[in-house]
Amino acid sequence: MRHVINLSERVHLFPPKPEVLSERQKADHIANIKELLIEKEAVMVVHYYTDPEIQSLAEQTGGFVGDSLEMAKFGHKHSAKTLLIAGVRFMGESAKILTPEKNVIMPTLDAECSLDLGCPVDRFSAFCDAHPEHIVVVYANTSAAVKARADWVVTSSIALEIVTHLDELGKKIIWAPDRHLGAYIANKTQADMLLWQGECIVHDEFSSNALKDMKNVYPDAAILVHPESPASVVQLADFVGSTSQLIKAAKELPHPQMIVATDKGIFFKMQQVVPDKELIEAPTAGVGATCRSCAHCPWMAMNCLKSIELALKKGGDQHAIYVDDIVRLKSLIPLNRMLNFATDLQLHVKSNI
Ligand code: SF4
Question: Rounded CA gap, 349 and 145, in Å?
């Protein structure tokens, strides 16, 4: 049996757009960042949704581009003293939780996530307290405090496997905060899930009607969809998966064109993997001023070359991530559960090859 709760308040604050830089300014920032990375013994760990020039710089300087789970693993293993995390704040917090001995800095601490903002720890904790018979599974896109209240943390690349595992153990599940991903997983697994009603403003905006029209224009294209999208969009997909899984699918599917329903920042890495294929942005419900995100996360867009240079130069309270020790130790437990589960799963997969 599946339950759905309704929350009347959803917090969607919109950050300012970053300053537009000239080519000369960009080149200066890039040169300075390269020097600072060496001087500070730092490495760039960046998400697929950041701007292509940031992803490219991370690759040029020995850093990493990936999804949030891969970012956390890379930062944990790397020998750098400082991790420069370009993404949104929960990614910086996850890095600090896993690697407290390192200096974790971000271009801006104001880079939020609508899922994190829509799941404040006090209300979420009260909700969990009201359903003590449920195991608490939260998506990585949450604050350290919400993770500390959870039994499991998951990312979109491993959520299905973990919920299947818990369902097989007969557990009832509280799922937070993304309602679309939660509904997708509940539908796939038939697990007993109580869904928190959060949403990603980027994926929530993809439109199934406009996508059907687009498919008529590109009949040979495969449709790739991130499961944070509405069910009506997921239903049209040839493949549904996390960012890394979508990139892999773009390579493996035979189609010459891909219509991609996730943040368009992913095109930088996806195009590297399929240089001969045409990548097409899936349509959102609005265009220009009428869409909330226009398929690009406004908080991811706050990561810019200028703010990366500032973070490396200054560090300090405006850029460094701090996580309270008690919260950190509590949140480490569900995070490590996920990482250990992922490791076991890989071993299992390998042993079956
Ligand atoms: S794309 Fe969506 S889920 Fe990702 S950080 Fe932005 S608002 Fe959050």
Answer: 33
Nearest residue (CA) to ligand 1, atom 8: 113
Q: How far is the CA of 7 from the centre of ligand 1 (A)?
A: 19
Q: Is 132 exposed, middle or buried (0-12, 13-18, 19+ CB in 10 A)?
A: exposed
One domain, residues 318 and 262: no
Asked whether residue 107 falls in the same domain as residue 120, the answer is no
Domain coverage including residue 59? 23-114+300-326
Cα of 114 to ligand 1 centre, how many Å?
A: 6
Cα dihedral 4, 262, 292, 108, rounded to 10, equals 100
- 106 and 27 in one domain? yes
Q: Is 229 in the pocket of ligand 1 (CB under 6 A)?
A: no
Instruction: Residue 46: give its domain's CATH number.
Output: 3.40.50.10800
Interval 276-331: pLDDT, tens: 999 999 998 766 666 666 788 999 999 999 999 999 999 888 999 999 999 999 99
Domains held by the chain: number: 3
Q: What's the confidence (pLDDT) of residue 153? A: 96
Residue 283 Cα to ligand 1 midpoint, Å, equals 17
pTM assigned to the model: 0.91
